[in-house]
């Protein structure tokens, strides 16, 4: 399994430069590194190398790849057609080709996440550095396994319990029609298998994002007040998807004592200073980077559950109490902060209990049951 590392912040040039520097540093330490980006042409210019859509080795232990959405879509579409041909005697999509398909809004993030999953499962890399948009789109991308699995659990059960669901799953005549029309057995276990496999992927993705040893983000900012505010917002939004933020990397020019310029709202994050220097000074840039893995383990946990005290504590920096909305519908407890909405999975001992109180204290939303 790989450590998946990404960077969040308002200025793409700084983020990409830090991602490239991190790739050089970690590969120089003997780790097998894949630098994967979907932001061009900055990465190619910094590397002085034309990055392609397949991993290419540009130095010892260092590979780079461009996650081009149209290419990823074409490859994924071919996989779908192959899967369809295995389960349907008369495939429906055989006349539709990947080269014809347009990339819908949001699809590029899903394709990039799936590519990262595949590279992770290949076992070829110790570290995968994702150099993406670095804003709410990246956060939503890493939150996809949780979002999609929730939609699947919720709407699948609603469909099964609905009248039409009962008709489709119980009525022999409907099953017969489907078997004759599509040449497969509606109730056949082999047909359900790809769905089960997808659910397994989603659960593994959720576990990885919640594990600071597997996925971690670092904030990147200058001392400029607007950039710092954007980073605080991204920090809080990351907690909503259970993504650990390991620290803040402050890009500065000159010899200013940048750490003393950081407001207390970023406590207890560790702050590193990254000099805004030419890429001819790669060694100086590498020496300024933090220990990513160590800081990830020391960072505040996005969620803590105390079963004995019947309390759930959510770490939500960057938000005020008036920006947070808490609702409960049956077994689901939903927390809305900014443009992120989180459905909390409660342990069995708390399922069925109603929320008895909630308070916002020291950047934590503390929910009592």
List strands and helices in order, with pairings.
Elements: E1 3-8, H1 12-28, E2 33-37, H2 42-47, E3 56-59, E4 62-66, H3 69-87, H4 107-121, E5 127-131, H5 136-161, H6 163-170, H7 172-182, H8 189-209, E6 215-221, H9 225-239, E7 245-252, E8 271-275, H10 282-287, H11 292-298, E9 303-306, E10 311-315, E11 324-329, E12 332-337, E13 340-344, E14 357-361, E15 364-368
Parallel strand pairs: 1-5, 1-6, 2-4, 2-5, 6-7, 7-8
Antiparallel strand pairs: 3-4, 9-10, 10-15, 11-12, 12-13, 14-15
What attributes does this structure have?
single chain; EC 3.6.3.16; 369 residues; 4-stranded antiparallel beta sheet; Immunoglobulin-like; Rossmann fold; alpha/beta; P-loop_NTPase; 15 strands; 3 domains; 11 helices
Describe the protein.
- There is one protein chain.
- The chain is of the alpha/beta class and 369 residues long.
- The chain has 3 domains: 3-71 and 101-147 and 207-298, P-loop containing nucleotide triphosphate hydrolases (Rossmann fold, 3-Layer(aba) Sandwich), CATH 3.40.50; 149-203, no CATH class; 303-368, Immunoglobulin-like.
- 41% of the residues lie in helices and 22% in strands.
- The protein has 11 helices and 15 strands.
- A hairpin with a 4-residue loop joins strand 9 (303-306) and strand 10.
- Helix 4 (107-121) packs across helix 5 (136-161), helix 5 packs across helix 6 (163-170) and helix 5 runs antiparallel to helix 8 (189-209).
- Residues 186-193 have low confidence and may be disordered.
């Amino acid at each position: 399994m790989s450590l998946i590392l990404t960077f969040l912040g308002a200025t793409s040039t700084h983020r990409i430069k830090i991602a490239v520097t991190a790739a050089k540093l970690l590969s120089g330490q003997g780790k097998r590194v894949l630098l994967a980006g979907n932001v061009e042409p900055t990465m190619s210019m910094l590397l002085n190398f034309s990055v392609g859509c397949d991993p290419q080795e540009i130095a010892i232990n260092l590979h780079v790849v461009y996650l081009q959405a149209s290419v990823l879509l074409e490859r994924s579409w071919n996989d779908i057609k192959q899967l369809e041909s295995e389960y349907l005697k008369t495939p429906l999509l055989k006349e539709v080709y990947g080269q014809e398909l347009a990339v819908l809004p949001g699809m590029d993030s899903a394709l990039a996440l799936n590519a990262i999953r595949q590279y992770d499962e290949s076992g070829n890399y110790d570290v995968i550095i994702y150099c993406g948009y670095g804003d709410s789109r990246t956060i939503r991308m890493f939150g996809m396994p949780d979002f999609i699995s929730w939609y699947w659990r919720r709407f699948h059960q609603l469909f099964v319990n609905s009248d039409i669901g009962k008709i489709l799953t119980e009525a022999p005549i409907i099953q017969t029609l489907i078997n004759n029309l599509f040449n497969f057995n509606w109730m056949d276990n082999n047909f359900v298998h790809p769905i089960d496999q997808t659910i397994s992927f989603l659960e593994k993705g959720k576990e990885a994002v919640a594990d600071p040893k597997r996925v971690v983000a670092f904030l990147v900012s200058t001392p400029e007040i607007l950039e710092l505010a954007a980073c605080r917002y991204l920090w809080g939004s990351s907690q909503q998807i259970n993504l650990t933020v390991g620290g803040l990397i402050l890009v500065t020019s000159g010899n200013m004592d940048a750490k003393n310029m950081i407001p207390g709202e970023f406590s207890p994050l560790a702050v590193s200073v990254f000099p805004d220097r030419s890429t001819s000074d790669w060694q100086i840039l590498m020496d300024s980077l933090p220990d990513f893995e160590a800081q990830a383990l020391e960072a505040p946990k996005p969620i803590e559950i105390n079963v004995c005290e019947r309390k759930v504590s959510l770490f939500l920096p960057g938000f005020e109490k008036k920006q947070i909305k808490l609702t409960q519908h049956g077994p689901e407890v939903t927390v809305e902060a900014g443009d992120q909405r989180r459905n909390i999975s409660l342990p069995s001992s708390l399922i069925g209990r109603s929320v008895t109180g909630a308070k916002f204290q020291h950047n934590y939303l503390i929910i009592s049951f």
